[in-house]
Design brief:
By secondary structure, the protein is an alpha+beta fold. It has 5 helices and 4 strands. It is elongated, with a radius of gyration of 19 Å.
């Protein structure tokens, strides 16, 4: 669903801070607060806005170790099988199917190296996983939220 320019500006404003008032957003985009609310309601109804959430720094939860795990799966493993299994891991921040040799790449946050290792071992033990390959993050260089894509 492609958004018109005005709706895209409203979505970007909300993505930057979903707690902004409709009046504040309206002042930015040139609409009244009720007009912004009507548009947001319509965007929610149409499925362009799927919800509102809070972003938490994993370190605030004590999860200071970050890594990526490449999963290499048995043939006939569907993306839904992978998604279903990974949904049971609270340490998984994101997971995607990918091109290349791996079938999926999984972003994991853990409290320490031992915790990361336990998560890696559990994932490697999933019935559809043939092997895994992991890398640990030393220093995050740039992070952009998918809720707030670049214009």
């Amino acid at each position: 669903m492609a958004l018109n320019e005005l709706d895209a500006r409203i979505v970007h404003a909300l993505a930057g801070d979903a707690r902004r008032s409709y009046a504040d957003i309206g002042a930015e985009v040139g609409l009244s607060a009720p007009a912004v609310k009507r548009r947001v309601d319509r965007l929610r109804e149409d499925g362009a806005i799927t919800g509102f959430t809070v972003r938490v720094d994993p370190a605030a939860l004590g999860w200071t170790t970050e890594g990526f795990i490449e999963m290499y799966c048995r043939s006939r493993t569907s993306p839904e099988d992978i998604r279903r299994a990974l949904s049971h891991y609270p340490e998984v921040a994101a997971a995607s199917t990918v091109t290349g040799d791996a079938d999926a790449v999984v972003q994991v946050f853990a409290s320490d190296m031992r915790h990361f290792e336990r998560v890696l071992e559990r994932m490697a033990g999933e019935h559809f996983v043939e092997r895994t390959k992991s890398v640990l993050v030393l220093s995050p260089l740039l992070r952009r939220s998918t809720e707030h894509p670049p214009r």
